[in-house]
Write a structure and sequence with these properties.
Blueprint lengths: L16 H9 L25 E7 L6 E7 L2 E6 L3 E6 H11 L9 E5 L4 E6 L4 E6 L4 E8 L5 E9 L2 H8 L5 E5 L2 E4 L7 E6 L6 E5 L4 E5 L4 E6 L7 E6 L5 E5 L4 E6 L7 E7 L6 E7 L4 E6 L4 E6 L7 E7 L6 E7 L2 E6 L3 E7 L6 E8 L5 E8 L11 E10 L4 E9 L5
Antiparallel strand pairs: 1-30, 2-3, 3-4, 4-5, 6-7, 7-8, 8-9, 10-11, 12-13, 13-14, 14-15, 16-17, 17-18, 18-19, 20-21, 21-22, 22-23, 24-25, 25-26, 26-27, 28-29, 29-30
Keywords: Repeat, WD repeat
Pfam families: WD40
Protein name: Anaphase-promoting complex subunit 4 WD40 domain-containing protein
């Protein structure tokens, strides 16, 4: 059973959608946070706004576990180990042109492996990283087949053979992971749930249910540091700010903040522990150029953390975004917009106000028939739909536990003018 209360075996099994749904719905039992003020409207009414579902992408027999956008491509991954690629422009325009709800047919299976995918991260230069239930990280290079259809070519599996060889013969490299079981420190020994890259691209971070935070150095992907245990329970979420602060969210209800040691650049130190949630922290996202952190948990609340005025990078909780009826499972943020996906099968799109202390719920995206497990948020893809409506538009991609991906267009008033 994973840290959010959803059962996921180490070997891939195809479970009925009803079973997965019932497991996810149990996440709603946690109360919301009364100790923090609500930053949204008290009556939970949605601001008048334009939004529409542009496409429904189908093709999975298991749930969609991760999404990532890279240029004109949308990558989606599932619990059956498959990664698919969809041309974003074509996918987001097809249903809009048909004026129907029949959705788009399945597209190319770009890659497949024998372990459930937990996270996707596009890092530029046609490189896609995926983390897996088997404790490994896989690096893929985008390419195409002879017929021109896209595919992913496996370039590396982390830890690499070089890392395994350099630690294999060194007794001090082994750590005890379970009773009577030892592994070298470069290995994750449970599902790798989150990936993030440093602002300069020099470091890759990975977090796992084994409670560890690991640091890798591209392009050879050598493991240069392992913080274990970084938390008292499984780590579910990870985010890195433009100034290099690393945030980890855990089933121990805590969010921890790390930064590089001022003298030892490959080492990280703990600088803050943030405790406001009363239940498992499932998701993290950074907005407003890294000055605002959003955290989502099984308590149905999104906590908003703002940079304190002390100048040392510390975060303070300023309030919560309420409205979801069940656990928050995923978050995505860009600029002053943040999206939250929930076990209540909806996505809420929020916009930070000019005074920075109030938020408007721009839209509640309803249409999924299962918990929303993954999100991606992009701007500028929906050309002209709301061009004359007094604002800019955003594309929200959402993946659910029934195997569907939906692409939504949402009007964000005055986004282009700010």
């Amino acid at each position: 059973m994973n840290s959010a209360g959803v059962q996921e075996p180490s070997q891939i099994q195809h479970e009925p959608a009803e079973a997965m749904l019932s497991q996810a719905v149990s996440l709603s039992s946690q109360p919301s946070l009364p100790s923090l003020p609500s930053l949204g409207p008290r009556d939970q009414n949605v601001s008048p706004s334009h939004h529409q579902c542009l496409a429904t992408l189908r093709g999975y027999s298991s749930y969609v576990s991760a999404l990532a956008v890279d240029g004109d491509s949308l990558y989606s991954a599932s619990s059956d180990g498959r990664i698919r690629v969809w041309p974003l422009e074509e996918a987001s325009g097809r249903q809009e042109q048909q004026k129907g709800d029949d959705g788009c047919s399945a597209t190319v299976v770009a890659a497949a492996c024998d372990s459930s995918v937990k996270c996707l991260l596009a890092v530029g230069d046609d490189l896609l990283l995926s983390s897996h239930q088997d404790g490994k990280i896989r690096a893929w290079r985008a390419g195409s087949r002879k017929d021109g259809t896209p595919r992913l070519v496996l370039r590396a599996v982390l830890p690499t053979c070089v890392d395994r060889l350099r630690t294999f013969l060194l007794p001090w490299s082994y750590v005890q992971v379970r009773r009577h079981r030892w592994r070298t420190w470069v290995h994750h020994v449970d599902a790798v749930t989150a990936l993030a890259v440093s602002p300069d691209g020099a470091l890759l971070y990975s977090a796992s249910w084994d409670r560890s935070l690991k640091v890798w150095r591209p392009p050879g992907f050598r493991c240069v540091e392992s913080i274990a245990p970084a938390h008292d329970d499984a780590i579910n979420a990870l985010a890195v700010s433009p100034d290099g602060h690393v945030y980890t969210g855990s089933a121990d209800k805590k969010i921890k903040v790390w930064r590089r040691h001022p003298e030892r650049r490959n080492k990280h130190v703990l600088v803050q522990t943030m405790e406001r949630h009363r239940s498992v922290v499932n998701a993290l996202a950074l907005g407003v150029d890294g000055k605002v952190l959003y955290s989502g948990a099984c308590d149905r609340s999104v906590v908003v953390w703002e940079r304190a005025g002390s100048g040392d990078g510390r975060m303070e909780a300023t309030g919560t975004l309420r409205g979801h009826r069940k656990a928050i499972l995923c978050l995505a943020a860009a600029g002053d917009v943040v999206c939250s996906g929930s076990a209540d099968s909806t996505v809420r799109v929020w916009r930070r106000g000019a005074e920075n202390t109030d938020y408007t719920c721009l839209a509640v995206l309803e249409g999924h028939c299962a918990p929303v497990k993954s999100l991606a948020l992009v701007y500028g893809r929906d050309r002209g739909s709301f061009a004359a409506a007094g604002g800019g538009s955003a594309l929200v991609c959402s993946g659910a536990m029934n195997g569907e991906v939906k692409i939504w267009s949402v009007l964000v008033p005055w986004l282009l003018e700010r």
